[in-house]
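Journal club side-thread
Mid-discussion, someone asked how the predicted structure for our own chain would compare to the paper's figures. Pasting it here so we can look after the session.
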Amino acid sequence: MNPDEAVDETQRNLAVGCHLLGFLGLVVPFGNILGPLVLWLLKREGNPFVDDQGREAVNFQITMTLAALVCAALMAVLIGFLLIIALGIYWLIVTILAAVAASKGERYRYPYTLRLIT
């Protein structure tokens, strides 16, 4: 996507939805991945901003799920309890930052994210 290209309101709203659907994981197991994935797959054609931000949201949610699994394994040695709290705070903050950036039409790149889907 060309950074100088104007992003219309519909694309911005769909991109915000891709980011915020990550919170579905609080209610539905693996909803944090499935929510953004479904929206991205349905709306990426003809919407370059949604394609970019949807892919970014899905990659981030996959990364957070893998990190949460590592934290769960580390709970056997007690450090995992602290790490899962820190991970949850990080997940919440950067997801909100991404949604705010997308609402302004800005591309957001999550830090420390595995880019598995390119």
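Post-session note: The chain has a mean pLDDT of 94.
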